């Protein structure tokens, strides 16, 4: 597994027109994540998505450093993003091409140079996720579950070392939530998962509870989830 390190990281954000010029989104945080499956839980606005996005540089720290196997994420963002795949809550944020096969092929553009070779590689990826029949389908005709599966297939097509998923099941029905959860938790890659689904968090190796911009509990899933349930208000 990779070593994800947050070294005294602070994240502040500007608040235009607000009573304060900026607010602290994530208080000073130091962590080392080496487990295969790490869940981040907490209420809306707690900072868990910010913490997740630090791992691949979608959010940069105001202070401190984020390191992936010793590489500074802020200073070497392109290199890190080749190793860290990111799955958004809403797949429309990353499914951008007209057809299913074209969308996966776009993900492969830096790995497979020839157009025909990319098409064949994209078809192989789709087959591995049971999406072959949708290859030439418009992405706008897909169901929510199909679209999220396509987004994940596009991320995994590049074989990242780490997968970060920001509430990937929130917009899905129960059946598709289970399908996506089983897929993510079965990955060989290291997974950092921000989620409201506590049953999903319980299937991870380590859980961090984030509240009011701080990690307030960190440890085995049962203990942290029980603490969250007991203190939620």
Task: Offer a few descriptive terms.
233 residues; alpha/beta; Rossmann fold; 6-stranded mixed β-sheet; 8 helices
Number of helices: 8
How would you sum up the global shape? globular
Helix amount, in percent? 25-40%
The largest β sheet comes out as: 6 strands, mixed
Strand/helix succession: EEEHEEHEHHHEHEHEEH
Overall number of strands: 10
Which parts are unreliable, with pLDDT below 50 for 5 consecutive residues or more?
Answer: none
- Could you say how many structural domains there are in total? 1
Give the terminus-to-terminus CA distance. 35 Å
What class would the helix/strand composition place it in?
A: alpha/beta
| Strands side by side in the biggest sheet | 6-7-8-3-9-10
Mean pLDDT: 94
* CATH fold-level assignment: Rossmann fold
